[in-house]
Amino acid sequence: MPMRYLPAIVVALVSIMAASPACAQRMAGFADIAAKGNVLELRVPLWMNGTMRAGPALTGRVRRKSLGASEALTLFGISIGGAERFGRFTFEAEGPAVDGKLSGDCIYDRTERRLGIGSFTISEPRRPLLLRCRFLRAGQVVGTLRLEAEAGTGAIAQPAHRIGRVKLGDKTVTIRSEHYLQGARVPTELPVGYRVADADTDEVIGAVDLTDFSRRVIALPTSNSARPVSLVASIALAVFWDPGDTDD
Fold this sequence. Notes:
Layout: H1 6-19, H2 30-34, E1 38-43, E2 50-54, E3 58-75, E4 78-95, E5 100-117, E6 120-137, E7 140-149, E8 162-168, E9 171-178, E10 193-198, E11 204-209, E12 215-220, H3 227-239
Antiparallel strand pairs: 1-12, 2-3, 3-4, 4-5, 5-6, 6-7, 7-8, 8-9, 9-10, 10-11, 11-12
């Protein structure tokens, strides 16, 4: 099985576990954020391409393409090389939730170094994950998203948070990944959700929970000015397949 599909499969397994009665959990803090606003359930494709829907408020289509490349030089049983994971995804949304029609066009990329000795392999990020999106109406760019993985701290069991900014019209929000499930003491490597905050006040105004692979739950602010940018950020993050920091 191609390694480039591994992150998505891992997320799917985690999602199945999280949805089971024994460990039904959401991202930490989601309930508190949702209590201050409105909740929207967005169903997204389980695999590469397909439809998305949030009841009568939003319908649309998602297309994804994940690629990868790797190379290595092996001498005397020691392998030195690297790998790159990159891809593109697009979405088209229509309905009252997005005030008509809105589309997104996103690309992402990250690279890693790899050192192998026999069956033992060490990997570390070389160029951390970078996700960039353009949001369009009638073919015109009306907003952008930029999300980056923080450089690793080297601490054991400390994930690389994803941080970024989303702009739609004249409103900007910041986004930051959440790596703890509610009540958990150990963080996950991949995000289980994202918090959305007002860029001017740093107040958390929304969130998107990613613990269910095909059913994302979005908490939106009640403010008319902040709701559209929070929603478009959440849609992009809901359909994004994070490739992880390394293949290992």
